[in-house]
Amino acid sequence: MLDVNLDINNIKNNLKEIVQKIIKQKRIDNKEALLLYKSAPNSLLFSLANSIREKLNGDYTYFNKNIHIEPTNICVFDCKFCSYSRLLKEKNEGWQHSMQEMVAMVEKYDENEITEVHIVGGVHPKMGLDYFIDLIKKIKKIRPNIHVKAFTAVELEYMCRKAKVSYKEGLSRLKEAGQNSLPGGGAEIFDKEIRDIICKDKCTSEQWLSIHQTAHELGMQSNATMLYGHIEKPKHLIDHMSRLRNLQDISRGFNAFIPLKYRNGQNQMSHLKEVSVIDDLRIYAMSRIYFDNIKHIKAYWPMIGKETTQSLLAFGVDDIDGTIDDTTKIYSMAGAEDQNPTMSTKEIIKLIKDVNRKPVQRDSIYNEIEIYN
Ligand code: V47
Ligand code: SF4
Questions:
Q1: CB distance 299 to 284 below 8 Å
Q2: In the predicted model, is pLDDT for residue 291 greater than 80?
Q3: 53-371, what's its fold?
């Protein structure tokens, strides 16, 4: 039973049964989730999400010490929401780091400063499976204990296709080289009609899910994202979460679910207005209520902003990613407030404590490293 302070008699009839199910910690189906999301008042949605958060994770708010490596922003795909990618011919704005530069980015930090390197970028036609195997080996050679979380399913689908290997073969080779887990990017919205409009040419939903399932079967954990606040409708959000919940029932490898707010800076969908903070809170709260089989809901602070991240800690979120150290450009190029995202451990701890939650430094698979009382 959830410990939630609600007057059931005051809840509208069509929602009563759903709310009672949630309080009894029974799974809600997609129809119920849609009704709840569309018609529950904010106060109801928010208190349910918060009590689930507290039941699962108490006051704990997880973060890690990490950096990003973005090997290139040159990309063969043309996602309409992307502010970051450049075609090969746009020489001025494209970058491509050399292998040495990327290894040096990791070497800059000693063993205690970061525990994770997150590698994700554009899909460059000349950077393939063997290239990235080499990169991971070189990183592991200088920092054997660092956790390498790398490559969205979009990058992996392209890498495996070009190398003419199955997902199992490609992922096994990356794992052998030292890759530990997968980030959750590239999922966007699984519904085909929406996907065809916003990112037609990259990996399909079925491919995304199959790559994550294969990774889980090989013992590599991963995250899952959902890009919200553009042209999708509530039914597409529930459908997206449903496909993930179904896979998680089978493969159990998702650590965190990360709703990503569409930011409208400098991309082909810039005419769309960004959704309000209340909409953000409702999406995060709904995802906390819906996923009874994913333990962590993550707010990625460089994208959603520090203040909203703080608020979200009362609306289902228990993880805020990491220190980043100004190593990502994806969101600053899309119009996020923070143009040089970095937080020291001290700042992250303060951000969490200021809203009466308990900061917990974690490793990449949620083992607790230090609890800050
Ligand atoms: O798949 C691109 C998104 C994702 C925009 O797993 C945009 O821990 C909003 O997935 N507005 C890549 N979002 C980043 C990602 C991620 C980030 C942090 C942590 C983890 C994790 C994963 O960024 C893409 C896409 O959905 N994105 N452009 C934009 N304009
Ligand atoms: Fe390329 Fe990723 Fe941008 Fe799509 S979102 S264009 S795959 S970099």
A1: yes
A2: yes
A3: TIM Barrel (3.20.20)
